[in-house]
Each structure stands twice: as C-alpha cells, then as structure tokens.
Amino acid sequence: MAASDQVHAEGEQGPAKRLKSESAVTDTASPQAQTPAYLREIDAGIAEFITPGWSGFDAIIKHRYSDFFVNEIDPHGNVVHLTSYTDAIDPEPPKTEAEIEIEALNVPGDAQAAFDEAFVRLEPILGASDAARIKAHLEVTEEQTLEQRSLVLGRELDKDQRKGVYMVTNNFLPTRVTCETVDGQLRFIRRLPKDKAPSDKRGQRSKWAHAGDYCHFVMQKENQDSMDILQQIARTLKCNARVFGMAGTKDKRGITVQKCSAFRIAHDRLIWASRKLRGGRLGNFSYGEKEIKLGELGGNQFTIILRHVQGADAVSLEPVLLGIRNTGFINYFGMQRFGTQSISSHTIGISVLKSDWRRVIDLILCPRIGERDDVAKARNVWDTTRDPKATLELLPRRAALAEHSVLQHFIKSGSTNNCSAAFACIPRNLRLMYVHAYQSFIWNHAVSERIRVFGTKGAVPGDLVIVASDFSDNAHAKSKAPEEEARVVPVLVTEENASDYSIYDVVLPLPGWDVRYPEHQVKNVYEELMAKDGLSPSGLAKHPLKEYRLAGAYRHFLIKPRDFTYEWMRYNDDALPLARSDSDAIEGKHDPESIEFGQNVALKLKFDLPPSAYATMLLRELMRTETAAGYQTQLSNNTESKE
Questions:
Q1: Would residue 574 show up in a list of annotated catalytic residues for this protein?
Q2: What sections of 173-265 are H helices per DSSP?
Q3: pLDDT per position as a tens digit, 124-166
Q4: SS in 3 state form for 358-425?
Q5: Active-site entry in 43, 58, 225, 251
Q6: Other C-beta atoms within 10 Å of 161: how many?
Q7: Rounded mean pLDDT, 571-583
Q8: Collapsing DSSP states into helix, strand and coil, what is residue 495?
C-alpha cells in the first residue's frame, strides 16, 4: 500500500487559484514539452469531495519525516511492531524421516560393538554365508591394493535389500567399509585407517538448522525506501537482494514498520547487518516455511502529525472529524501512484501499452523539472549525446533504478536501438508500475464522473456492487491466470435490487480485458478517455507481451478508516518529535506530551486503512488541499524560509 507523501494543507482560498500561476513547463527538447512541472490532482482525475459545507484548514504534514508513521497490519489483523532488536523465536526444527529412522537403529557408541551388531543386522538381509564373507573381508588388517580390498557380492539384490545394506554400512561401519553398486552388484571396499568416513547426506542435517527455510523479521526504516534498506543488507551480507521478501513497499519520507523474510539467512547474521544499516533497524526474528510475498498484508496503521494548524480548532473541526470517521472518503489512487516528477508514471504506461518502446525509453531518460542537480546533469548528457556510458557515469548509484537498468543494457549490448530489450531489464515490479498507474488514472476519472452524476447517497441502477465486508480488501484483482483462483464477480444493480446495497458496496473496474463495466454513462469515461490515448478496454487483451495484457480489477470507491482517533497537542519546537517510534520505545524514550501553553497547535491522527488505500486521500478530504508533490514542495520551502 502506498502511504501519504509530503502534504501541506491549504486554506479556504482553494488550491486551483494558486496552481494556475505555479505550473511550469519542461525543456522543449523533452518528449513532455509544455507539460506542467508536476501532475495536479485534477489532471489525475481527483476532483470530488463528499464532506458537504467544509472548506478546509491550514496545516503542515511531514514538516519532519518523523511526523509520519506507518505500521503494517498482517493478514491476521495484527499491527506489526518492532519490540526487540535481538529476540528470536528459533525452535528446534522437526526431525526428518531419515533422522528418525537412524535414531531408531540405536547404533552402539563402542566401535567393536557396532561392528558386531552390523553383521547381526546384515545376516537377515544377505544370509549368514554372505554376511560372514563380508565380516572376514573387513577383519583383514594388512596393507593391500584397491582390488585386493574390494569384495563383490556376486549376485544382484532388489531395491529394498540394497537400501538395508546401505543403512547398516553407513551407520554401523562408516570407518570400516565403503559400499557401492557396480553393474547391479554390491561391492564392499575395505577402508584404510587414514581414509575419512563418508558423509551420509540423507541422514545428516545440513548447516541450516532452523524450523523453516525463511527467517522472518520486522524492519523499521526512517526516511529510506524499503528496497534501499534490503539492498543495504544484501551488500553487507554479500547476498542477492532477491532472497528478501516483503508484503509491500512503504513511503520513503516517514518512519515505517513492516514484516520481511530472508531465504536461508540466519537471524544472527541479520542482527549483525542491522547494526550497520543507515536509516533502518531489524528485530523480532522468527522462522517459517513460506516467503512473505507482495500483497500479503491486511492493511496499514497510520499515525500522522499535522503541525501549525490554523483556521480550525477542536470545536469547529469536531463534526468534520466525525464525518471522516463515520462516512469515510473517496478511495482515489493518490498522487504517489503517478510519481513525483514532471513526467508521470501513467504517461510512460500509455507508451508501454502501445508497444512504443522508443518513446518509453525517451520518457524514462529525458530531462525533468525539479530533479536533484546530479540526476539532471546526467539526463542532459543523454539528451544531447545519447551516450549511455557517459550518462551512467554521472547518474548517482542510489538514484534512478529504471534509468540504471536501461543504460547498463545499452552499454552491454553496444547499441541503443533495442529499446524493448532495454525496458525488459528494468525489474518487473517497476515495469508493471507504469501500466498500473495508467489503470489508476482512468479509474480516478471514472470515480469523479460517477460522483458528479449520481452522488454518494446509494447504489443506482447500472452500478456494479461487491458486498464490502468489515475492513475487507478493497481491490478484488483478477488472477493472472483466472482459472487458478476464484473470481470475484460483481452484481449489476437494477431498480429491483438497488435497496439491497449501500454506497460502500459499489465498485468500479480498473480497465482490463476480464472485467465488467457499469451499465450507465460512466462506462463512456473508460472508452472516451482511453480513445484519446489510442487505446481501448478490449485492446488491453491484445498486447504482444503477455505481462502487459491487463485483466483488470474491481475497487470500492468509498471506504471508511478503522479505529480513527485524534488528539490535539501544543508544542514549541518544530524540531522535537510529537510521537514515539517503535525504536524509541525499545530504547526507553517516553511518548511526547502536549505542552499546556505551547505556542503552536498540532493535530495527531491515528487510523487504519486497508491495502492499496491512500492516507493522502483521507487528508485531502479533511483539509481540502492539493496533494501533488510539486505543490507540496513549494509550500514546504515557503515554510522553511519563514522559520
């Protein structure tokens, strides 16, 4: 789930009037010439509100990254917390069948007793005569050649007999004989005193001695991307970052806590790596049989500090806060879904869906407004020279993963012509992010049209509904292979059944080839908006590459937060935290308290949201603010300059 990025609330003047003069354009060399410096909410289809008669208030969120906390909720509904840096649940792993079988043999500790017992056990398998021959052969002590030390049984044995012989020789006679099958017959080779006993891989446990192949752990990060922390661990432990799994990425700007897994990396190594992390800590280790995979979460719990609240107080804001708690907000995809730069992710997604690979690469690599200087310099080199090596040398290692992947392919292949192959070098999740952003773009516009035309009082004929359970997953995605899992099939609302459903049951589809569309005028939004981009809902099934053939999904368009609470606080110093992190609690720090006569006012919000819901959109409903990253940055800079 994506959480809110940096948001600064705006007051009663409304964002639209100010935004008109704050838009900028890109360099004409860019494929996005004459595009605003950032995508605005209205451009992304985010246009409506459901709280009547409220004009918002001024406040700042994420004035410090420590004003924004996210704790993952696991699939069982438990909020994930970091409570210890070292504790580990590491029970003795269950014994294998081979280990149980070997234990049952009761091999004597005395070597001579084990030798004698071996032939007692071999006699019923091979017969008294052959057992005696083997025993006499092994009792010879003088030095001999390999041929002289070898005894071939001279007859074939069935599978069960051979298994029984190997069980005895490997466990009772490991230092006396090597047993092997040659041309269907057993050969017994008397071992020399200097020979090492062979290892029985079937009977001995490997070095991994834990109850499950995956070490599960809790990761807290501060002002870092989730993948950056996992890559730091991978570099420290000299392992591939692919051994790590997580249920979802969390916001960079904030303090976030989530569960992760590591394939066959013991907790003591992770404890050691945790001490070297920049901006992260690990703890609460345990072991399990399964990897933690994307999407395996029940939601996220947010704690958000709004600083410098103006234009609202406890009395005036009370009905609005109660409205958010009881009515909820529009479940728009937040602005983070579309990226924070002048070239939005959904724009790249359009070209991906049209298989226009040259334009895809141009959009990924071209200059953008508002980027840090070192990245901008690298992009300008590419724009003027098309030299992948010179561009990559200037591109910071920790920035621009997609750009790194593309440029490295161009360098390795010695050509910049195969743009399809270059795009395929970008990690799959990132590639799909572009097309999913386009689906979200269309969905947002469809939701705004649905609210404009029909309001939010209830389901209307032509709507699609999926009955919403308490805190259910609000995105019922189709399986990549629909036959592999049960489909969620929406019901069409008619005049006869409309009263059976609430507005919280109404869903709209993300465009795809395997979803149903509403049977009223909102359906036209999908067709008309996609047609402007040279696409169509049915055409999403025809992409030449299977991974971009989008099946679609359903998403409820109104949701309520769970356990929504709020607290007014007064404080003096913006640099001091107003909430305690999990690591603070471990280290014995107290929860910050309100100062009775503090100069500044803050509002502390705490609530749970289901997966894929955006805290940004709840804040937008509350504060009536533009949440585009570029606008947020401008307000943040203005605030910093006044302090």
A1: no
A2: 226-237
A3: 999 999 999 999 999 988 888 888 899 998 888 888 898 899 9
A4: HHHHHHHHCCCCCCCHHHHHHHHHHHHHCCHHHHHHHCCCCCCHHHHHHHHHHHHHCCCCCHHHHHHC
A5: 251
A6: 13
A7: 94
A8: coil
